[in-house]
Amino acid sequence: MKKLLCGVAIGFILCVAILSVFETDKLSNYANITIAIAACVATYFHYESIRNTRTQRIWDTNKDFLFSFSRSLSNVIQTTKEYRDYEYSLLSPHYPNYPEPVCSMEVDKDFKNHLAEMSTIYDCLISNELREAVKNVENEKLAIQGMINDDIALVPENYNSLIECYETLEEELRRFIVRLSGIENLKMA
């Protein structure tokens, strides 16, 4: 609405300025100039409307998956932190004893599915930063899986590295959701 009022005001001011500067016998020229300015303003509003509609369509189509992926990522971060704390409690007598975490196969499986979808299906829609964060998580998980396959014990530092990758992905995902949803354009009072 602000843009519309601004466009009308600017058009009116330009029309009055042009009419006052030039001679009144060239009224048809003034009318043509006014029509040209109005056409430019209308074209700008039409372009903005199409751009906003396209962005809104992309958001409406993908918001369920993005929120589901965000929830899955949050769950896997929490589970990984529990495993890290459990490993610390086993290695350090000064660290509080944590019970062994409940098997997180469902959480991990859900996250793997979301990560696979994000890196294949949604790859063309995401930002470069988010794409890079997804690849970093995939590479870190592959490295840790290699350690597990080679029977190398996981130390808490490995968990910290994985948590850091997860948190970077979470931050990039939040930025992407904010940008795509249009929340960044809202001014909070």
From the spread of the alpha carbons, the general shape counts as rod-shaped
* Low-confidence residue ranges: none
The tally of beta strands, per DSSP, is 0
C-alpha end-to-end distance:
19 Å
Major sheet description = none
Helix-strand layout with pairing:
Blueprint: H1 2-21, H2 27-91, H3 105-120, H4 128-149, H5 156-181
Question: Explain this structure to me?
Answer:
With 189 residues, this protein is mostly helical. It has two domains: 2-50; 62-183. It is built from five helices and no strands. The longest helix is centred in the N-terminal third of the chain and has 65 residues, at 27-91. The radius of gyration is 28 Å and the shape is rod-shaped.
Task: Give a quick summary of the entry.
With 189 residues, the chain is an all-alpha fold. The chain contains five helices and no strands.
Keywords, please?
single chain, 189 residues, mainly alpha, 2 domains, 5 helices, 79% helix
